[in-house]
């Protein structure tokens, strides 16, 4: 009986230079001899157009293939050659009914590669996982990919079935704001996404608002990584609104996103209702003392938390805000080591330090004032209660006298 290992064919990391059909022939012979192929790993080699065409012919016969790991397979190849290779390989993948995952990351094929993939992505309704990290797609390449996903969703609808796609990884692609509206449209149409990772794409607040607006339609979203894009206050507000919809959210990575003091706080306050959260990354976001205080409050409801990253923000690692954060973790029976290093907190200027001290004092004064008001209210309520009793006694006495 075939084991799972027997169903994997791997040339992973061998550094082979496969340019011609002759170069790849011995490996294709081995591939043909795998009776039930479920996973193919070719990453870490370099494949030319002729070799890719020969590979495609063999792939067409492997109808049991589920996972195609093809990242980093075109190093040193010319753009036109890469495009020809991607067209050939994707045409073969289109004929494989069991295929659920494709990884073409770390292939610098740019918009031409996106065009070469478009037909496959628009027709392969069974695809569940798409990994396109560091492909140099740019705005136009991003639009091409997103439009293909929209077409695939429409095809699913036409065939009376839900889209299968649940994971999209598309980081380091310079997608910028220009591609965001089309990706937002794709996300809104799919509604099946559970994991979306789009870090380091140069997306600015308007684009962020578009993306999270589209993602808000995906109620099962569990993992969101938008690290190293730019939110500011407007993008942060859009994310805070979308957070309400993601009741299954477990991981959120928005480190290095320039949330700012106000933006950081509005997101932090929205996190308190996401009780499923396990990992929160808010590093290097210019979050200040008031945001840290708000975070301590939000953490009270997050009893499943496993990792909290706050390094590089703008409050003192020794401040009472950090003590409150640790206390909130402790209240939930969580260890202190959940809180990552605070070794690189941003230094404040003298005026900012004074401002932070003032904020701490104001927070303490506000707390004391609230306690005093509560005390006063309680005393007033007691006095009112006694007055009511006295009035009731007086009315009762008057009634007795009238009856007499």
TrEMBL record:
GO-annotated cellular components:
cytosol; nucleus; perinuclear region of cytoplasm
Q: What's a GO biological-process term for it?
A: nucleocytoplasmic transport
Q: Which SMART domains match?
A: LRR_RI
Q: Which GO terms describe its molecular function?
A: GTPase activator activity; small GTPase binding
Entry keyword set: GTPase activation, Leucine-rich repeat, Repeat
Q: Give yes or no: UniProt keyword RNA-binding.
A: no
The record's region (Disordered) falls at 346-389
Q: Where is the signal peptide?
A: none
Bias category Acidic residues: which stretches? 346-375
Spell out the protein name for this chain.
Answer: Ran GAP Rna1
